[in-house]
Amino acid sequence: KKYFEVNKIGLLERLLREKPIYVKALDDINLEIYSGEILGIVGESGSGKTTLGRILATLDVPTSGELYFEDDKITKANLSKIRGKVQMVFQNPASSLDPRMKIIDILSEAIRKLPKEERSKLIRNTLEEVGLDYEYVANKYPRELSGGQLQRVAIARAIITSPEFIVLDEPTSALDVSVQAQILNLLVKLQKEKNITYMFITHNISVAKYVSDRIGVLYAGKLVEIGEVEEIISSPKHPYTQSLISSVPSLTKRNLTPPSGEVPSLINPPKGCRFNPRCPYVMEVCRRAEPPLFEIGGRKVACWLLDQRYQKQ
Ligand code: SF4
């Protein structure tokens, strides 16, 4: 079932206060999110992935395009209906949790409308669900907990309101590798048990592969490829996705081939395909025209190589 539909979403961002420069942090993004799935969103910094997550978590409003929630167009009038169903977990729990509040109060605030007794029971249960001991953490302040414990608290705060959809923005990037694995397993377990829909944002394609059902790849504010995780990992079609996958270190691989060059500045992005200055397969058309999203099987890829006219015979 289609849960969210993102239709030509764009966001203009103001960069400087004194002499404003506007950049398209997101440009014409089209995608769907299905109920009960984990959609991984992968990209380097500056690709627009957090901006997309914030729009879906209703924290930012797009400057163009439309957003549909269960077939209803999201407008200012019905935003509150969606807000209650959506949560976001951020990369750095230390800065997303109020340092002056005890853990019990942080969680209590999220469910302040419930009667006191119900609240206490729910807080106890939720802390247990995320693997924390109520007696140990409830009366502590965030500074008294480790990074992994804090991220568990942040996850508890997100799930305590029984959301249908959670945007996870690099939830394990600030953690040690061993703790990362524990948090990933916890998130996958909670998603399955509660049938929550996730958008999982990460710069790490291995992490995306581990958790996701489908993967969407963003590059410089554009969606360049989206499809089932096995297909994307085993046969990436977009040259950028190919280079992301071949730059993942493994215990057996010695030759890494990361994409050459830098992510382009959004102030003055390249004409045509934004990946063209870094692409080993660049053609004349790539420098003049932006590729549309071509559909092949269940996959969508924004690259002229998928157009029959440019395929080598
Ligand atoms: Fe490379 Fe052209 Fe495809 Fe862009 S459209 S990824 S430049 S081949």
TrEMBL record:
<dbReference type="InterPro" id="IPR050319">
    <property type="entry name" value="ABC_transp_ATP-bind"/>
</dbReference>
<dbReference type="GO" id="GO:0015833">
    <property type="term" value="P:peptide transport"/>
</dbReference>
<dbReference type="Pfam" id="PF08352">
    <property type="entry name" value="oligo_HPY"/>
</dbReference>
<keyword id="KW-0067">ATP-binding</keyword>
<dbReference type="InterPro" id="IPR003439">
    <property type="entry name" value="ABC_transporter-like_ATP-bd"/>
</dbReference>
<keyword id="KW-0813">Transport</keyword>
<dbReference type="GO" id="GO:0005524">
    <property type="term" value="F:ATP binding"/>
</dbReference>
<keyword id="KW-0547">Nucleotide-binding</keyword>
<dbReference type="Pfam" id="PF00005">
    <property type="entry name" value="ABC_tran"/>
</dbReference>
<dbReference type="GO" id="GO:0016887">
    <property type="term" value="F:ATP hydrolysis activity"/>
</dbReference>
<dbReference type="InterPro" id="IPR027417">
    <property type="entry name" value="P-loop_NTPase"/>
</dbReference>
<dbReference type="InterPro" id="IPR017871">
    <property type="entry name" value="ABC_transporter-like_CS"/>
</dbReference>
<protein>
    <submittedName>
        <fullName>Dipeptide/oligopeptide/nickel ABC transporter ATP-binding protein</fullName>
    </submittedName>
</protein>
<comment type="similarity">
    <text>Belongs to the ABC transporter superfamily.</text>
</comment>
<dbReference type="GO" id="GO:0055085">
    <property type="term" value="P:transmembrane transport"/>
</dbReference>
<dbReference type="InterPro" id="IPR003593">
    <property type="entry name" value="AAA+_ATPase"/>
</dbReference>
<dbReference type="InterPro" id="IPR013563">
    <property type="entry name" value="Oligopep_ABC_C"/>
</dbReference>
<feature type="domain" description="ABC transporter">
    <location>
        <begin position="1"/>
        <end position="245"/>
    </location>
</feature>
